[in-house]
UniProtKB/TrEMBL annotation:
<protein>
    <submittedName>
        <fullName>DUF4239 domain-containing protein</fullName>
    </submittedName>
</protein>
<keyword id="KW-1133">Transmembrane helix</keyword>
<dbReference type="Pfam" id="PF14023">
    <property type="entry name" value="Bestrophin-like"/>
</dbReference>
<feature type="transmembrane region" description="Helical">
    <location>
        <begin position="9"/>
        <end position="26"/>
    </location>
</feature>
<keyword id="KW-0472">Membrane</keyword>
<keyword id="KW-0812">Transmembrane</keyword>
<feature type="transmembrane region" description="Helical">
    <location>
        <begin position="210"/>
        <end position="230"/>
    </location>
</feature>
<dbReference type="InterPro" id="IPR025333">
    <property type="entry name" value="DUF4239"/>
</dbReference>
<feature type="transmembrane region" description="Helical">
    <location>
        <begin position="185"/>
        <end position="204"/>
    </location>
</feature>
<feature type="transmembrane region" description="Helical">
    <location>
        <begin position="46"/>
        <end position="66"/>
    </location>
</feature>
């Protein structure tokens, strides 16, 4: 198993544990009598100051979440476009005379089966050589003389659909191999820690209220970041994209 394929889960665990550790460390430090006495001159930070860092933290998380879910939407669109192209190819293949008709339809179904089977490799950020070979075989068959029997217009359309299949497969593979951008998450972590410090600064004179406020922020921030992180690869759980549309297309189902 490729350990780097599941780096999203590792970062999610780091985000949760790191947030809780930061809250505990700040609260433990500020509640020590020696530290509390030294913070007296710094008391008086007004509550609206928290909004500055908290807003920047929330916006950063929202931008990262948008990138993650946008990638998932693009991968889902690619799968449905592949299914549509497979259906189109099967319909166009029906215009061919026998035995070219059945041979062409078989090549289309072979690619569909190989592409659906590749989803297991996409979870590991890999590719299936069988899918690439099936795509090449389908292209050679459509570009060859057998598809020309249906006419130049039909053959041209079949070629267009095959090229679209290949483009969508390449898009699926590239999205499954997308790695996390450490700079984005480092920036978000820094803003989160500054927000914890801001909450603590507002509650310097009320340690129990400060513990509650920072704990509530941690309970909101850590799970939100973890939810975004674990969806870094659109072909992994908990919201993995399925190959069902491709399988339905080659099976002739709506």
């Amino acid at each position: 198993m490729n350990a780097l394929a599941y780096e999203h889960y590792t970062y999610a665990a780091v985000a949760v544990i790191g947030t809780l550790a930061a809250v505990w460390a700040v609260d433990h430090l500020l509640n020590r009598p020696a530290v509390a006495s030294r913070t007296v001159p710094w008391r008086g930070v007004v509550a609206p100051f928290i909004n500055v860092n908290a807003m920047l933290f929330g916006l950063t998380l929202a931008f990262i979440a948008n990138d993650t879910w946008s990638a998932r939407d693009r991968a889902m669109d690619a799968v449905f476009r592949e299914a549509d192209s497979l259906r189109s190819l099967l319909v166009l293949a029906s215009a061919l005379p026998e035995p070219a008709r059945e041979t062409m339809a078989g090549a289309v179904r072979d690619y569909g089966a190989a592409a659906a089977g590749e989803f297991a490799q996409l979870r590991e950020r890999g590719v299936a050589p069988a899918a690439a070979a099936a795509a090449d075989a389908l292209l050679r068959r459509v570009a060859g003389g057998s598809a020309a029997a249906a006419g130049e217009v039909v053959q041209a359309e079949m070629l267009r659909q095959v090229m679209r299949l290949r483009d969508d497969r390449d898009l699926r593979v590239s999205l499954s191999r997308t790695h996390l951008n450490p700079l984005k998450w480092l920036g978000m972590a820094a803003l989160g820690f500054l927000t914890i410090l801001s909450i603590a600064a507002v509650h310097l004179g009320a340690p129990k209220a400060g513990v509650l406020a920072t704990a509530l922020f941690a309970l909101a921030a850590a799970p939100s970041a973890a939810i975004v992180l674990v969806q870094g690869n659109p072909f992994q759980e908990p919201a993995a994209i399925s190959a069902a549309p491709i399988l339905a297309a080659i099976a002739g189902e709506p």
